[in-house]
Structure formats: C-alpha cells, structure tokens
C-alpha cells in the first residue's frame, strides 16, 4: 500500500530555487537561514532523482538522510528512578 520513502537533504544557492524540486519529490521542509530543503522520494527512484538534482544549476550538494539508521526503540534496560526521587 505505502511505498518505501527515502529522505534527501538538498543544499541550494537560493531558497527561491526550491520550487522546482517539487516535481521530483515531496518537499517536507525548507530552511530560510541555512538554504537547504528536506525532501522525500520513492526508494526505487532514489538514484535517478539524485542524478537529476545534481544536474540542476542551483543545487550545491545532495545528501542522503540518515533517519533510517537512527535507533527509534526507546525501551530502557535500567529501572526508572523517578519514583524513587518522588517526581
């Protein structure tokens, strides 16, 4: 039902140039101060989209998002000490 998505961080020269990125994938966030955009693309088309992005004149650099590599299981092996301190 849902396709596997991959995040890309696209560094641009100017924030106005993030508008054409919407035809290659869904733009999730664009930073005004640091001039980058976070966008999501289908995992099968990731390599083709990266090549297309690097050909654009306003793109400085394209990086893969490391979000899938981050551990999101927050179960603690240690006992919770908040009840001991009365919090």
Automatic annotation (TrEMBL):
InterPro entries: DUF2129. It comes from the Bacteria. Pfam families: DUF2129 (PF09902). Keywords: Cytoplasm. This is YlbG family protein. The lineage of its organism: Bacteria, Bacillati, Bacillota, Bacilli, Bacillales.
């Amino acid at each position: 039902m849902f396709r596997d998505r991959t995040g890309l961080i696209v560094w641009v020269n100017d924030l106005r140039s993030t508008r054409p990125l919407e035809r290659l994938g869904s733009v999730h966030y664009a930073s005004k101060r640091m001039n980058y955009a976070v966008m999501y693309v289908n995992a099968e088309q990731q390599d083709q989209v990266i090549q297309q992005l690097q050909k654009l004149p306003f793109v400085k650099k394209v990086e893969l998002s490391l979000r899938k590599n981050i551990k999101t299981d927050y179960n603690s092996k240690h006992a919770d000490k908040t009840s001991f301190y009365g919090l």
